[in-house]
Fold this sequence. Notes:
Number of strands of chain B: 9
Helix content of chain B: 40-55%
Largest interface: A-C, 98 and 99 residues
Oligomer: heterotrimer
Distance between the termini of chain B: 58 Å
Shape of chain B: globular
Order of helices and strands of chain B: HEHEHEHHEHEHHHEHEHEHHEH
Amino acid sequence: xxxxxxxxxxxxxxxxxxxxxxxxxxxxxxxxxxxxxxxxxxxxxxxxxxxxxxxxxxxxxxxxxxxxxxxxxxxxxxxxxxxxxxxxxxxxxxxxxxxxxxxxxxxxxxxxxxxxxxxxxxxxxxxxxxxxxxxxxxxxxxxxxxxxxxxxxxxxxxxxxxxxxxxxxxxxxxxxxxxxxxxxxxxxxxxxxxxxxxxxxxxxxxxxxxxxxxxxxxxxxxxxxxxxxxxxxxxxxxxxxxxxxxxxxxxxxxxxxxxxxxxxxxxxxxxxxxxxxxxxxxxxxxxxxxxxxxxxxxxxxxxxxxxxxxxxxxxxxxxxxxx
Amino acid sequence: xxxxxxxxxxxxxxxxxxxxxxxxxxxxxxxxxxxxxxxxxxxxxxxxxxxxxxxxxxxxxxxxxxxxxxxxxxxxxxxxxxxxxxxxxxxxxxxxxxxxxxxxxxxxxxxxxxxxxxxxxxxxxxxxxxxxxxxxxxxxxxxxxxxxxxxxxxxxxxxxxxxxxxxxxxxxxxxxxxxxxxxxxxxxxxxxxxxxxxxxxxxxxxxxxxxxxxxxxxxxxxxxxxxxxxxxxxxxxxxxxxxxxxxxxxxxxxxxxxxxxxxxxxxxxxxxxxxxxxxxxxxxxxxxxxxxxxxxxxxxxxxxxxxxxxxxxxxxxxxxxxxxxxxxxxxxxxxxxxxxxxxxxxxxxxxxxxx
Amino acid sequence: xxxxxxxxxxxxxxxxxxxxxxxxxxxxxxxxxxxxxxxxxxxxxxxxxxxxxxxxxxxxxxxxxxxxxxxxxxxxxxxxxxxxxxxxxxxxxxxxxxxxxxxxxxxxxxxxxxxxxxxxxxxxxxxxxxxxxxxxxxxxxxxxxxxxxxxxxxxxxxxxxxxxxxxxxxxxxxxxxxxxxxxxxxxxxxxxxxxxxxxxxxxxxxxxxxxxxxxxxxxxxxxxxxxxxxxxxxxxxxxxxxxxxxxxxxxxxxxxxxxxxxxxxxxxxxxxxxxxxxxxxxxxxxxxxxxxxxxxxxxxxxxxxxxxxxxxxxxxxxxxxxxxxxxxxxxxxxxxxxxxxxxxxxxxxxxxxxxxxxxxxxxxxxxxxxxxxxxxxxxxxxxxxxxxxxxxxxxxxxxxxxxxxxxxxxxxxxxxx
Lengths: 323, 355, 417
């Protein structure tokens, strides 16, 4: 917004104040995220800039905290870094295990949430859908109901949601459940919990994409002789795909960042990155946490870029201009 | 059966970390490390049973939740003495056959060898640890000497670190207010006594930083966030002797208690768990743990010879809560008192904190 | 016209058109519903049932009723007994139950249940059960000889209430009421916490909402009025925090605000404050508010932005050309048009703030904790029914706000990025 030519001096002052305020708010938004990056290269075990760092002395910077991410939980941290050393990093290091768990849990939760969510969104955006508002409210509520309440409820219910390990169900799902065949303390428990939390995001993004969807395209496809399957895969899917992918990314990030449900329903085998960070912050806050944080910031920048590109593509496809 | 299970596991495995045979749950940090080095690793090496240590902020509620849900994944847990008794009363722990505990290295039968009260129906003590307070010697060359000094902000200015919980904090406040250790629980049993403890805490409330996990206390001291803090003595020892931090423990007003290994009811490997406990609480097991962290072994036979710290030059004796010189003004935690008043006083504590 | 109305329209195969249409519509409805069904079932299993389970937990505790069948029966038969002076049969039933508890090892469970409302009873039950074998008629006298506390009216009130597995007592405790000898009463000033924390949680959420609104308004306005290319770039600054891990952001606030942190270092460095004048901005309410504002700000900016985006600038120009001052233009023309965005953003931020857990848990210290943290505290103390009761009360408040949001704004208008 440019200042109009007829602005009075007072308005000019006000205008520049307004610009300054906006800049400060942007600084407030972004500074805390960027500040962790230089801090993570601290050579000392401090959580702030050391005089050496401020003087840009190379000795003030190091990669030691990134190194601890590899060596924590490693039996021979100082050993020669040969193939077996690296293979132990892959198999044993605490942070690497947490990253693996986070990744797999996030992936399965995303697949679950996206598949179920997209199909449901297709139903929800049909004009004939009965009780649309009520169902929508229910499906969005995992985002609204405080996570602590969901986590408490899940911790009660998942502990009781068990199958006998020697039954048929146990044989099929046994590995994904806890030793006693329960959802609590199991990978599957964390996956379904995270899928539940991710569903609102999928529903919101996919229904938003579908709301701009031109229903006559379906009729056009059908009149040209396409069966429902062809219509779905050749017409609907390509158009809503950007929405589906960004919903999936939202779901993945939700899972990748989720700690409360994990704290309440997961066992020691389901150590994830956020849980490891949460414990780290509560106990001894070392710059190793900042190194993890930096990696996560880089990941979120990548994801955000991806979502933005997708959104633009989707807008273009649907013929919407501007945001 | 087990074989096929492992096989299917391997087939459907998509990269999660694998399960171990025996799972021990403890408090993490320097303490968890001492139990890992002193008990878990040597036992696993001696018996060939894959054993893992998992950390918890407090194992007692964790195993309570598991047992009540019938979803127990932990075989052995390290819990506070009062919790070992409370959980046992609630029928959540496996009873431990005291007669099966090994005799001391000098041949003394276990019943005579353990300190009185160290073996309970469902728990065997692994060590005697203590709530002490410590300060940074670079901040106070002429350091505090008594519990009362902790509350003296004029003589020793600076922030205080305190554990965020009623237990041991209320007793410490009364000790700091001049109550004799023998009278602490009588006083704390009355409403006036509780008020008195909170009034004492009020005097430093504005200057207090609260910690929750044991590792936080030495961290606060190291970061300069506090000038002195209460802490588990072993954590301060690990920082001072192990890492050479300039920390000094004040033993006056220490509040000590037993820590116990227990087996949750329905543990997946109950027999191995019992075997583990017998190993860990033998004279050698206790000494091995005590050589990693300065908590006193609860067997007479384990205290006969000096225990050396893993650095090979520090003798543990003077650093143990059970050292006579450290017991001049000390309080043994009353498990009975806390079993009864934990809920009530913690609620009051939370209310006081939030105000 | 009348003729046409009586003659039914039919489809080609002769069925009445109305019925055919209804059937087709029903089919379409069913088909739409079938698409949603799998997700509904999933959410039922992983979300609704757990919450119902939790609510059940808040009114259910069978620790005492299971352990004391004789007393259960006696209390059921004598609902109007005098707690100040229970008769001999009541003590006889108690003695019978105590010896049963000793055998079945349920003393702890029973004592723990009563201990929630009458503190100090766990050891009383343990002592009673230990001595159960020595008890003899008259049981009243012999029990009182073991411990005079067995005659406390509050204890008898507590046991009577606990003799049924279903109870509202946990909600009473969660409303700061205490069981006294004369029945339930308001707790002492030093003991009240739950309602106070509820109030505080709402107050803090309100403060955060207002701060978010004040910060978000100019920024959203700027974003909405800048040319597309520039605003897209700036939008990234809003969306990046949105996509960054909550734990990362909380960590950075600790690094920034703690006593030895960057902001304090900076202020000491430029001489604004002395070395011993470092401000305490972390592990208290200040830290909680700052960090939560940062986390929730994008939830305010996005709805505000989407509303401001569609406000035509010509309205403001028209107002100005008709002689309104810039302030009047803003107040009378611009602000009213942004109200839907303000309402949407404020409600969303408020709802999310009320249930916040992680940030206060990590940076709240002592006075910065909110009601969620108390739920987690009671969970960690294994006091599950009370935790569930507090959660139930919080849930009721949230659902009310959610309903309000749906009424005022509409769930389907929720947007992300």
